[in-house]
Amino acid sequence: MIARIWFGIVLVLASFVSRGAAQERVVQRHGFSDGEGRLMAFYSAGLTFSPVAAPRERARGDLALGLELGYLPPLSTEQRRVGDKPEATNLAPIFPRPRISYALTDRVTVEASWIPPIEFFDVKANLASLALSWTAPASGALRFTPRLAGTLGSIEGAITCSEELLSGSIDLAVYYALVCYGRESRDEFFPRHILAEVTVGWDRANAAVEPYAGIGARRDWARFDIGVIRADGSREPDHPILELRALRPYGVLGATVRAAARVRATAEMLYAPGSILTLRLQGTIDAIRR
Amino acid sequence: MRSGVRGGLAAATLCAAVGSCADFSGTEDPAFGLPDVVVAQPSFAADVQPILKMRCAVGGCHTLASEQGGLALDATVSYDELVGVPATSSANAYLRVAPGNAADSWLIRRVRADPALRNGLTRMPLATLPLTSNQISTIVNWIDQGAPRN
Predict the structure, then answer these.
(1) pTM flag (> 0.95)
(2) Which carries the bigger pLDDT value, residue A185 or residue B18?
(3) Do A178 and B68 touch (CB under 8 A)?
(4) What is the pLDDT confidence band of residue B4, given thresholds at 50, 70 and 90?
(5) What angle do CA A207, A259, A47 make, to 5 degrees?
(6) Which candidate, A200, A205, B28, B56, has a CA 20 to 30 Å from the CA of B109?
């Protein structure tokens, strides 16, 4: 009897081991210089959790709520062609990002953001960002703010195998039928980066417009999991997981305007060389102001 | 805020939105990182298999796991699956690789531009850039020299 139980346990364990082996995926590392790396870096840079607000002094306990709208410019067929066919990455041209910031002290502010997993355009994101900044005392007319931030999460969409392929050439239609099993893929992009930046604002009391600029660096470990779905509904393990390893610079230039006593609006240009030049807008309301 | 300042900022924002773009161009390499030269006396292992690996034995296609069309081109099996083996998709009973006869080898017919050579079937590799003419010539040379296992 005991021997049978042990035999059963061994069988169960063996089934887990063999399942794990069958689902083992190859992780392909990519640098910024190759096509896959550039494409991942483009989207990772587009999601950079930059301040989208001029640095300012706040009182401990101040709480602000904001909504950021970021723009992701569409990519050409050539830019989306990495490895073989063009990938269907032009899914969501804008992404809304709710933000909250809280002044831990008069100089230290924590910011957080979460994009909940709600399908928007043809993608479902579940992204969280966190930042910690320290506003230095004004130095003449300038105010420096060093800031550390990070972003983690996933974005799901049909990128490798999209029904768009059926409206392309016969090659693409055959690819969709054979390699894609006639189904849209469930690919997942996992942005994973930390960034360090310094922002400098022009400090003027009660100014209607507060310009600012900043530079920073982003350390990226983004991943792209190719999610081709087989006829039986399982994930095709024959495709690799792509991983970006890169350290990239970026810069921001923006201005915050006071629209009402507690409401501010910011427009910010973000430039990540070799990746993206784009616009972000944020509306912020001071929920608690001491 | 004065309406002039507000209008100026709105105009600047609009210009910025219009100016948004990706800061990179496509990096298409027709040779896929391989040397794009004709090898006159090719070795299967050193000159032919790297082309098969890079262009055919990729995820979802002719890997051991996917084996589309019943053909895997992984280094461990590709020679045995190619040389002297009848092509499953050829109505004319071509061999995948007919030693000494590249013109009648289904592998060469499927990668060439002329649809008549492949009975109207899609050109390989599927949905991507074709092999370069130098890569095709290298494989042709290897087949015409008897497709040795070298």
Answers:
(1) no
(2) A185
(3) yes
(4) low
(5) 95
(6) B28
